[in-house]
Specification:
This protein is an alpha+beta fold. About 40% of the residues lie in helices and about 15% in strands. It has a two-stranded antiparallel sheet.
């Protein structure tokens, strides 16, 4: 699975928000950083099908990958 439809993405957000107690505060800066990424390759997350569900993980940007090596 490489893509989440809008409906599936909304369902994932509902589950995550419920796990966090129903509220998550996001600053404008965090939101803009997530929307206006310096990567031109598309999505910043990876969706992997696992037994009984999906795993969603963040794909590090190139500078983050370099720093971790």
């Amino acid at each position: 699975m490489d893509y989440l439809s809008d409906t599936n993405l909304r369902a994932v957000l509902v589950v995550l928000l419920e796990r966090c107690g129903g509220t998550v505060d996001v600053t404008n800066g965090e939101l803009y950083d997530a929307m206006l990424t310096d990567r031109s390759s598309g999505e910043r997350f990876r969706i992997t099908q696992i037994d009984g569900g999906v795993r969603i993980s963040i794909v590090p940007s190139r500078p983050e990958q370099s720093a971790s090596n």
